[in-house]
Amino acid sequence: MIRIEEVSKIYHQGKPDEVRALQDISLEFFPGEVVVLTGPSGSGKSTLLALIGCMARPTQGTIYLQERRVSRLPESFLARIRRETYGFVFQQYHLLRDVSVLDNLMFPLYPAALPYKTMRERALLLLNKFDLSDRHKTNVRQLSGGEQQRVALARALMADPPIIIADEPTAHLDAELSLELLKILTELNAEGRTIIIASHDPVVYQSPLINRRIGLRHGKLVDDNNAGAGQ
Ligand SMILES: Nc1ncnc2c1ncn2[C@@H]1O[C@H](COP(=O)(O)OP(=O)(O)OP(=O)(O)O)[C@@H](O)[C@H]1O
């Protein structure tokens, strides 16, 4: 599904503050896997997620998505690939705080030029799924952290993406809400979605939901406990 070949990412290359965030990584992700990227702060987890999700390009190496080489495509193509392929969930949620829950869900789909009615129906369906129906007119600012995380997840599903990418999704949740999030991710996986999470939260990486753990240290792959399990 996603193949990463000998990928390195260097920030500020050739400058005094150069950072080798990822070094010579080769990996393959398979449909239906639930993968966690784990490792200490600064080990390269977010950078790897950004490359997988076509949000950044590697300095060296090649990335294939469904056998299509995506690592050198121009941004206009990448934007479309991101919209159609990935649902992103970030630790800071990245929601528009002074805008209603419903508009937060519909906003990222505007470039797809779907009819307003279709987007609204889809958004209301997802809000119902996440127990947020009665909050659709509420401004995000007025929601609790757990509710905001559910809105972020609902928004990630608006384009019905086959792959969910989540960067430290439990960072601002207590243990109970973290387990609730994992339950939702389990359901999304049962629907056939591939899930790739970066996390150093043991609630996440020790969860039975996870079928593959990939360890990073100083930008290098140090551990891959179940490569190919999803084949
Ligand atoms: N945009 C950037 N410009 C320069 N350096 C960066 C940038 N993004 C990340 N880095 C550096 O790259 C290295 C890897 O960072 P990354 O955020 O990928 O690690 P991480 O494992 O996700 O860390 P954390 O768990 O703290 O989020 C770090 O040394 C970081 O400072």
UniProtKB/TrEMBL annotation:
Name all ABC transporter domain ranges. 2-231
- Which Gene3D superfamilies does the UniProt entry name for this protein? P-loop containing nucleotide triphosphate hydrolases
Tell me one GO molecular function of this protein.
Answer: ATP hydrolysis activity
Alphabetical UniProt keywords: ATP-binding, Nucleotide-binding, Transport
Q: Which chain positions lie within coiled-coil regions?
A: none
Its Gene Ontology cellular component terms are: plasma membrane
Short name of one Pfam family for this protein? ABC_tran
Is the keyword Transport assigned to this protein? yes
Which top-level group of life is the source organism from?
Bacteria
ATP-binding listed as a keyword:
yes
Full protein name:
ABC transporter ATP-binding protein
Whose protein is this, by species?
Answer: Pelovirga terrestris
